[in-house]
Amino acid sequence: MAHGPAKGITRWLYTTNHKDIGSMYLWFSFAMFFLGGIFALVIRAELFQPGLQIVDPNFFNQMTTMHGLVMVFGAVMPAFVGLANWMIPMQIGAPDMALPRMNNWSFWILPFAFAMLSSTLFMEGGAPNFGWTFYAPLSTTYAPPSVTFFIFAVHIMGASSIMGAINIIATIVNMRAPGMTYMKMPLFVWTWLITAFLLIAVMPVLAGVVTMMLMDIHFGTSFFDAAGGGDPVLFQHIFWFFGHPEVYIMILPAFGIVSAIIPTFARKPLFGYSSMVYATAAIAFLSFVVWAHHMFTVGLPIAGELFFMWATMLIAVPTGVKVFNWVATMFKGAMTFETPMLFSIAFVILFTIGGFSGLMLAIAPADFQYHDTYFVVAHFHYVLVPGAIFSITAGVYYWLPKWCGNMYNETMGKVHFWLAFIGLNVTFFPMHFSGLAGMPRRIPDYNMMFADWNMISSVGAFLFGAAQVMFLYNVIATIVGGKKATAEVWENPEGLEWTVPSPAPYHTFSEPPEFKSSH
Amino acid sequence: MKVLPEDPVKRLSVKLAITSFGFLLFALFVMPPLYVAFCEITGLNGKTGDKYEAVDAVVDTSREIKVQFVATNNEGMPWQFGPEVKTLIVHPGEQTRINYLAKNPTGNDMIGQAIPSLIPYKAASYFHKTECFCFNQQALLAGEEAVLPMFFIIDQDLPEHIKSITLSYTIFDVTDRFSREELLSMVDTGQ
Ligand code: HEM
Ligand SMILES: [Cu+2]
């Protein structure tokens, strides 16, 4: 029957195995997480004190741009795709992904995209310096020559994501074990199914907007150039039509992960499964009609301001349903606090804080004050770091024993959690205050009045960074050795992935399993 | 005729790929024109319309509208550019002329393009231009200057609450976009 993996480097180059590809995605993401982290620490080092000390302003701008791009497209998205590769087939009882060869492709083009993007740092004129949102005309008329490489890198990332999304949908729709109806799928599978549809809809829009930039820069069109009859505000509309669903692409799979972890450690079934599914779908649907909340200050008509304000606030309703369900799952549960659970609880609390600052930003008249200040930076880091990053971390601790057959070091995991938790709050909480006091984002120097908050933020950032080195060490140590894990790993976890031995054999579910639902 | 593959996985994948390609086409070919059309209908980005054919209409002398003229040079544009008068009081329905003056003080022959923007946005679709230098590029030889006229009519249907309108022109340097011959032919035709 099952034969093992091929030997040597070709195993990784030619593999079509979902577990191999999942591991490659996760390692790639981990590497990008550290690269993006280094960029962030350059930023925080410069901002440690007012005045210009370490880098010149143009390089500072390259750092904010590259940090955002690498974290969004290199760290968060590939990590979720990696988890999807590993876990979706195992959770739905399928032997592999539906399109294994395309799977290989969608991974292997990514390192090229990021090699190309990173190489711009060494080019004449420097790397992209126009922010991760690359607003025209900063990214067209005033862009460094390396912008063309940036554009092609985005094209490749987009192709990779679209192929990944097609694969995930094809797998979920066609390869579920007999008896697993849609409303019996694990929530991680559900949230990924919906995320994949978002990807298919908006990654092409991202590809489209960079293509228009390419045309404006090299072929004399004027999509975004007022002199030729275009309009830079059009850029922002198209970008955010992609960009807002994109932020949900980075959080919906996270919802799925914590919905798997919390019931295990609360020892209660998930509260409100079907409302979770409907809430996810509602969030995804609404994410298409709120994009202009990023553009309240461009001069929208009153009707537009109001529409986008109310639509944005409406998203808080299904989001609130989810938070309620997680809390209700924990309520009166026999809770224990292993590392994945700690990260998940922190997720629920801190993501909610990020949701609240989002609500503040959604108030159009108030946003005129908050827009482009550190308050926005605080908001999106509260939804992305304890949101996306913590959920990925929780998922890694939760499933790592299943992947490699060994238990991770629990003490070190807990220390990692507390350092990361403290580090992140020390970094990002003060940004609410500096932002409300008026500190603009994306500047290398600032008024003396913001000095204290910035110094605190920088200290927190280095603490957070150090905690991640510990995470890396723990993961490697677990792969190399450690206490053997049982097949179930945890106490009565739910899901098909726990019915196979640990480590999961190279081929699982070559025969479709018997599926019995517990809800 | 069967176009889509039989195998359900392939079938679905092809459909999804087509969908995503559809979204690419949507972004490239639908969103920009949609935006332009939307702005034209609503006047939202302050762009004024194309050439307007004057219709016989009564001048509404009961209303006075203050029209202010503003000029801005886009970054790096060395021309001297501005309106002859900064403010005019006009009646709806009345055709009015305003001159902008442009001078190319440099030693190079250049082409400029003026882009209008009007506030309040609601007034944009009631501000009609029967003739405007902004409909074309302007070529000015080194040191040359020109009077650039614009004729406009404010619609009688201009909403009652609008009492003042500001029209702004930004002049862009578009010399790079044209060949030498095109520049000279623009000078010849007096554009
Ligand atoms: C209750 C839910 C949320 C609301 C009401 C909300 C609202 C907003 C608003 C109004 C802005 C624009 C602020 C400005 O630029 O002035 C914003 C920015 C942002 N939000 Fe949220 N948000 C929510 C959830 C999320 C989530 C879940 C994520 C990602 C996981 C996210 C990521 C971002 C990012 C990345 C930006 C800044 C983009 C940039 O300008 O660089 N938000 N949010
Ligand atoms: Cu948004």
Automatic annotation (TrEMBL), chain A:
InterPro entries documented for this protein: Cyt_c_oxase-like_su1_dom, Cyt_c_oxase-like_su1_sf, Cyt_C_Oxase_1, Cyt_c_Oxase_su1_BS, Cyt_c_oxase_su1_dom, Cyt_c_oxidase_su1_bac
PROSITE patterns: COX1, COX1_CUB
Domain Cytochrome oxidase subunit I profile, residue spans: 12-516
Lipid bilayer topology: Multi-pass membrane protein
Keyword Iron carried by entry: yes
One Pfam family linked to the record: COX1
UniProt keyword annotations, A-Z: Cell membrane, Copper, Electron transport, Heme, Iron, Membrane, Metal-binding, Respiratory chain, Translocase, Transmembrane, Transmembrane helix, Transport
Known pathway: Energy metabolism; oxidative phosphorylation
EC number annotated for this UniProt entry: 7.1.1.9
Membrane-spanning segments: 25-45, 65-86, 107-127, 147-175, 187-215, 247-265, 277-296, 308-328, 340-364, 376-400, 412-433, 453-476
Compartments, as annotated in UniProt: Cell membrane; Membrane
Top-level taxonomic group: Bacteria
CDD domains membership: Cyt_c_Oxidase_I
Catalytic activity: 4 Fe(II)-[cytochrome c] + O2 + 8 H(+)(in) = 4 Fe(III)-[cytochrome c] + 2 H2O + 4 H(+)(out)
Biological role: Cytochrome c oxidase is the component of the respiratory chain that catalyzes the reduction of oxygen to water. Subunits 1-3 form the functional core of the enzyme complex. CO I is the catalytic subunit of the enzyme. Electrons originating in cytochrome c are transferred via the copper A center of subunit 2 and heme A of subunit 1 to the bimetallic center formed by heme A3 and copper B.
Family to which this protein belongs: Belongs to the heme-copper respiratory oxidase family.
Protein name according to UniProt: Cytochrome c oxidase subunit 1
Species in which this protein is naturally found: Gilvimarinus algae
Gene from which the chain derives: ctaD
TrEMBL record, chain B:
Bilayer topology annotation: Single-pass type II membrane protein
Transmembrane as UniProt keyword: yes
Pfam families hit by this protein: CtaG_Cox11
Keyword Phosphoprotein tagged: no
Membrane spanning stretches: 12-35
Coiled coil (UniProt feature): none
Location of this chain's protein in the cell: Cell inner membrane
The entry's keywords: Copper, Membrane, Signal-anchor, Transmembrane, Transmembrane helix
Cited function: Exerts its effect at some terminal stage of cytochrome c oxidase synthesis, probably by being involved in the insertion of the copper B into subunit I.
Family: Belongs to the COX11/CtaG family.
Name of this chain's protein: Cytochrome c oxidase assembly protein CtaG
Organism encoding this protein: Gilvimarinus algae
